[in-house]
């Protein structure tokens, strides 16, 4: 039989089910080929005609890292739209561009690592820009919409395969690979798991990526939750892709395992299918898997299970059916429809926080636009390269005319005088930027930053006036008059060579340090990217570890003066403030405060002092604590992508009525915040669900140019849930969107429950005078809580409020319904032991891993003293006579009833290690129902408490 007449192998036969085709292909792969597939960069198998495959293509708000693409608003901005349909359409556009880019560059992957569904529990999290909301219901709704758009609607073939990030309870960058999130069962099931679960159950998710952190003492990359929860939610094969470098962290930084073979085996057994480690070099992972096999830590069946899940994704993407794949010829890229969608998204993401009648602006108004973000269109780490751009200033020029708009950036302008009397000077460069402009004039900052072909700075008699841009916390950037930022390349030379600050390690940031001693006005200029100091040598200006230059700062203009000058001459002042997404709050770096940087606060004060008609537009990746007193209007938008400026100008002019809503609570001050590492949203009274203070602006808040009236709330009980309906009417004289929000509240719960909790929402567009009837189905599961005594959800019978309105605090309609449920009962502690982590309340306790494979235990924080409380424990009429505990480590366990004197003390001598549990017993006399208080002292782990009689 000739090669031309060989039969088609079953894995190439599109008539067969995917499962049979995967079986066939797996059987043809050798063990070495299967092992090689476990690395992110799976090699081709040429003898079978199977191509190479790469997991991972960033696509958070557009295709990232692969050059020019349509750039949509940041994820938190998409969350602010509260518009599921819009976000689905954005997902469709992003997946279409992914396919189009893939057709001309095979480095573009179809397994997209997006969206991020980590809940925005703490507003100081550096990656706040990547999530959608602090609320699990809103997060899952937006994430489900985006994944549906990314997946496409074909029943068999997916346009792209979305992977959710980052599993689980990940909300801090500080020591992110070594900190453990202590998440008690109620928080785990009612909060952190919910956003993932509801998105996975919707059926458009290809997999998840575990986070760098640990949860309850165990790294997420070996979490039993992947098996116990994630893969129990769906019948589909889900691909689990590690985060970059995380497999090595299991040994190198977390020291959870003592060899990489053990760590790799544990990750595979937990459910990790693709290892993102050591870049494109797969040899380390292959060596570790082979070593684990030799040592008996893994079986060939374990390898096969992981490869099977990866192949399931590849078949869904049509890789083996190019003639049948309906998405194979997708070429939609930077289309007029995508541009219009980017503008629509930017408009819908704008939140009007305050307005006392200043907005919308009249057609003949003279506007002064000022501030560090006024003429910026910022990108973040997960942005594509801009093809089009629109800054607030450009948007206002376009909308009102350049003759009616004045501008002052508000930066300080300085010359840096050396100790020899010369000044830093930026050499002139002809058409430097034009050399790196691509199609349609798109400037690629990756090609500009780090260049070594441009001349370094020098020092001469006149020097160059530089813009000194203060981003707070002593971090600043320096910019030449032609717009190029000072940057440091690998050779250590200082050049004006960056379009914007950026990169994994930002090379455009500096800090000015005062010199003590004889130099009264002397300053050192520290380069933050390298840690070195700027020095001036005969061959140019460099950054070095020695011989730093002592500079004198000569201010030629203060930013406040420029702002005051243009503000005084205008009818209205718009101060545009916020953050640069690469500075002071980003991946790897949490923020330290909610306050605006001091320099921006000074600009805001200068504008208000010069003109009472001042509005503030915050363009930021996260909330700020800004006093709105004295401001006529306040708006917020996340960095809005390529159409940000046009969108803002249209909202200011009234062409579009704002209808964005806050996806997270804006707190009034840092004092309102919990500790960054306190993941107990219930005990710490965190997010709008539990926060008992007065927020600066509440969750769901956002104003409009039109008033809306809510009427006719009706609630009907049905099998399995409630049918809720009401009417919304636009009583204003302009067409506008309204975001109707439905919340629930348990009236008299037996355990702490949310003050109110989002059950449903809908964004609707209404013409003046128009009404719409909205209806929602709310399942009974929405009213359940996780009963730690039973280890499962329970619907408590009683009264529940249904709250309808325009925000979590702006409730327009309410009614109460009585729901049947399962009555609570005391814990039967004679029949069921107390799991130590199943407490009702605690003090100074952290949850840790019982073993490296599964289970929870508890320990006092920092090995000190802590207390657990278990409410309503039933010892029976006959009572109990003994208590036993399973514990490891060293210390004491003291039990008391109802918080009274000690009833039993069990002392544990030092065990061999933290997982070497021993059972201790003591006599105790207890009958009836009591609260059990357990006090722990010392560095011990308590896993279980049991009673018998």
TrEMBL record:
<comment type="function">
    <text>Catalyzes the hydrolysis of a non-reducing terminal alpha-L-arabinopyranosidic linkage in ginsenoside Rb2 (alpha-L-arabinopyranosyl-(1-&gt;6)-alpha-D-glucopyranosyl) to release alpha-D-glucopyranosyl (Rd). It is not able to hydrolyze alpha-L-arabinofuranosyl-(1-&gt;6)-alpha-D-glucopyranosyl (Rc).</text>
</comment>
<dbReference type="GO" id="GO:0031222">
    <property type="term" value="P:arabinan catabolic process"/>
</dbReference>
<dbReference type="GO" id="GO:0045493">
    <property type="term" value="P:xylan catabolic process"/>
</dbReference>
<dbReference type="InterPro" id="IPR005084">
    <property type="entry name" value="CBM6"/>
</dbReference>
<dbReference type="InterPro" id="IPR001764">
    <property type="entry name" value="Glyco_hydro_3_N"/>
</dbReference>
<dbReference type="InterPro" id="IPR036962">
    <property type="entry name" value="Glyco_hydro_3_N_sf"/>
</dbReference>
<dbReference type="Pfam" id="PF03422">
    <property type="entry name" value="CBM_6"/>
</dbReference>
<dbReference type="InterPro" id="IPR044993">
    <property type="entry name" value="BXL"/>
</dbReference>
<dbReference type="InterPro" id="IPR002772">
    <property type="entry name" value="Glyco_hydro_3_C"/>
</dbReference>
<dbReference type="Pfam" id="PF14310">
    <property type="entry name" value="Fn3-like"/>
</dbReference>
<dbReference type="InterPro" id="IPR036881">
    <property type="entry name" value="Glyco_hydro_3_C_sf"/>
</dbReference>
<dbReference type="GO" id="GO:0030246">
    <property type="term" value="F:carbohydrate binding"/>
</dbReference>
<dbReference type="InterPro" id="IPR008999">
    <property type="entry name" value="Actin-crosslinking"/>
</dbReference>
<dbReference type="GO" id="GO:0009044">
    <property type="term" value="F:xylan 1,4-beta-xylosidase activity"/>
</dbReference>
<dbReference type="InterPro" id="IPR017853">
    <property type="entry name" value="GH"/>
</dbReference>
<keyword id="KW-0378">Hydrolase</keyword>
<dbReference type="InterPro" id="IPR008979">
    <property type="entry name" value="Galactose-bd-like_sf"/>
</dbReference>
<dbReference type="InterPro" id="IPR006584">
    <property type="entry name" value="Cellulose-bd_IV"/>
</dbReference>
<dbReference type="InterPro" id="IPR026891">
    <property type="entry name" value="Fn3-like"/>
</dbReference>
<dbReference type="InterPro" id="IPR013783">
    <property type="entry name" value="Ig-like_fold"/>
</dbReference>
<dbReference type="Pfam" id="PF01915">
    <property type="entry name" value="Glyco_hydro_3_C"/>
</dbReference>
<dbReference type="GO" id="GO:0046556">
    <property type="term" value="F:alpha-L-arabinofuranosidase activity"/>
</dbReference>
<dbReference type="GO" id="GO:0008422">
    <property type="term" value="F:beta-glucosidase activity"/>
</dbReference>
<keyword id="KW-0732">Signal</keyword>
<protein>
    <recommendedName>
        <fullName>Exo-alpha-(1-&gt;6)-L-arabinopyranosidase</fullName>
    </recommendedName>
</protein>
<dbReference type="Pfam" id="PF00933">
    <property type="entry name" value="Glyco_hydro_3"/>
</dbReference>
<comment type="similarity">
    <text>Belongs to the glycosyl hydrolase 3 family.</text>
</comment>
<feature type="domain" description="CBM6">
    <location>
        <begin position="832"/>
        <end position="948"/>
    </location>
</feature>
């Amino acid at each position: 039989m000739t090669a031309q007449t060989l039969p088609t192998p079953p894995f190439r036969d599109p008539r067969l089910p995917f499962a049979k085709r995967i079986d066939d292909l797996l059987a043809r792969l050798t063990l070495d080929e299967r092992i090689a597939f476990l690395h992110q960069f799976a090699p081709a198998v040429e003898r079978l005609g199977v191509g190479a495959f790469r997991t991972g293509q960033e696509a958070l708000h557009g295709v990232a890292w692969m050059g020019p693409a349509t750039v949509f608003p940041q994820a938190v901005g998409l969350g602010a739209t509260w518009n599921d349909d819009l976000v689905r359409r954005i997902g469709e556009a992003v997946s279409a561009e992914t396919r189009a880019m893939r057709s001309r560059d095979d480095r573009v992957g179809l397994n997209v690592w997006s969206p991020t569904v980590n809940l925005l529990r703490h507003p100081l999290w550096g990656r706040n820009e990547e999530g959608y909301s602090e609320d699990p219901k809103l997060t899952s709704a937006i994430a489900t919409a985006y994944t549906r758009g990314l997946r496409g609607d074909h029943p068999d073939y997916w346009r792209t395969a979305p992977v959710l990030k980052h599993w689980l309870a990940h909300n801090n960058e500080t020591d992110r690979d070594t900190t453990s999130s202590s998440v008690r069962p109620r928080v785990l099931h009612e909060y952190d798991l919910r956003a993932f679960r509801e998105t996975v159950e919707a059926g458009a998710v290809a997999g998840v990526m575990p986070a760098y952190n640990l949860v309850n003492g165990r790294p997420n990359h070996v979490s039993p939750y992947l098996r116990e929860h994630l893969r129990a939610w769906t019948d589909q094969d889900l691909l689990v892709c590690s985060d970059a470098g995380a497999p090595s962290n299991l040994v190198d930084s977390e020291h959870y395992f003592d060899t990489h073979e053990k760590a790799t085996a544990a990750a595979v057994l937990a459910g990790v299918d693709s290892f993102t480690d050591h870049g494109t070099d797969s040899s380390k992972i292959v060596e570790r898997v082979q070593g684990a096999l030799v040592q008996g830590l893994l079986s060939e069946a374990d390898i096969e299970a992981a490869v099977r899940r990866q192949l399931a994704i590849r078949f869904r993407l049509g890789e083996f059916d190019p003639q049948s794949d309906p998405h194979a010829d997708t070429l939609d890229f930077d289309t007029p429809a995508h541009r219009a969608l980017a503008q629509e998204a930017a408009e819908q993401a704008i939140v009007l926080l305050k307005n006392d009648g200043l907005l919308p602006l009249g057609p003949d108004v003279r506007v002064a636009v000022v501030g560090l973000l006024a003429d910026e269109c910022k990108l973040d780490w997960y942005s594509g390269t801009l093809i089009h751009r629109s800054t607030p200033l450009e948007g206002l020029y376009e909308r009102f005319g350049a003759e009616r708009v004045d501008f002052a950036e508000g930066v300080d302008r300085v010359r840096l005088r050396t100790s020899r009397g010369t000044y830093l000077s930026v050499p002139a460069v002809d058409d430097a930027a034009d050399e790196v402009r691509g199609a349609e004039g798109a400037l690629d900052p990756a090609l500009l930053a780090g260049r070594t072909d441009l001349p370094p700075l020098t020092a001469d008699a006149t020097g160059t006036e530089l813009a000194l841009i203060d981003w707070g916390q002593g971090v600043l950037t320096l910019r030449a008059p032609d717009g190029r930022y000072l940057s440091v390349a690998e050779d250590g030379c200082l050049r004006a060579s960056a379009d914007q600050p950026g990169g994994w390690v930002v090379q455009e940031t500096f800090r000015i340090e005062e010199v003590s001693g004889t130099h009264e006005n002397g300053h050192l200029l520290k380069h933050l990217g390298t840690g070195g100091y700027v020095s001036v040598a005969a061959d140019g200006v460099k950054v070095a570890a020695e011989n730093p230059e002592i500079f004198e700062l000569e201010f030629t203009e203060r930013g406040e003066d420029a702002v005051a000058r243009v503000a005084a001459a205008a009818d209205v002042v718009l101060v545009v403030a916020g953050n640069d997404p690469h500075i002071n709050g980003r991946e790897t770096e949490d923020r330290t405060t909610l306050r605006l940087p001091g320099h921006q606060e000074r600009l805001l004060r200068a504008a208000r002092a010069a003109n009472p008609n001042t509005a503030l537009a915050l363009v930021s990746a996260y909330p700020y604590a800004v006093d709105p007193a004295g401001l006529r209007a306040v708006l917020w938008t996340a960095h809005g992508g390529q159409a940000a400026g046009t969108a803002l100008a249209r909202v200011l002019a009234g062409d579009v009525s704002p209808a964005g809503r806050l996806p997270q609570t804006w707190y009034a001050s840092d004092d309102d915040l919990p500790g960054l590492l306190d993941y107990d949203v219930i005990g710490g009274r965190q997010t709008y669900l539990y926060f008992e203070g007065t927020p600066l602006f509440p969750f769901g808040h956002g104003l409009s140019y039109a008033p809306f009236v809510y009427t006719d709330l009706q609630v009907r009980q049905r099998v399995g849930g409630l049918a809720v309906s009401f009417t919304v009417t636009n009583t204003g004289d302009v067409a506008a969107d309204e975001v109707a929000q439905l919340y629930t509240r348990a009236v008299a719960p037996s355990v702490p429950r949310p003050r109110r909790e989002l059950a449903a929402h809908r964004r609707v567009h209404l013409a003046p005078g128009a009404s719409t009837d909205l209806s929602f189905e709310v399942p009974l599961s929405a009213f359940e809580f996780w009963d730690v005594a039973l280890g499962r959800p329970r619907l408590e019978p009683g009264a529940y409020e249904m709250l309808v309105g325009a925000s979590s605090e702006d409730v327009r309609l309410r009614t109460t319904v009585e729901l049947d449920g399962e009555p609570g009962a005391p814990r039967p502690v004679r029949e069921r032991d107390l799991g130590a982590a199943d407490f009702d309340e605690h003090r100074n306790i952290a949850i840790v891993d019982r073993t490296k494979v599964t289970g929870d235990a508890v320990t006092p924080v920092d090995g000190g003293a802590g207390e657990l409380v278990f409410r309503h424990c039933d010892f029976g009429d006959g009572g109990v006579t003994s208590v036993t505990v399973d514990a490891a480590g060293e210390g004491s366990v003291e039990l008391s009833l109802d918080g009274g004197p000690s009833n039993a003390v069990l002392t544990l001598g030092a065990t061999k290690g933290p997982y070497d549990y021993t059972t201790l017993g003591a006599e105790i006399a207890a009958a009836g129902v009591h609260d059990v208080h357990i006090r722990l002292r010392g560095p011990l782990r308590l896993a279980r408490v049991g009673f018998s009689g």
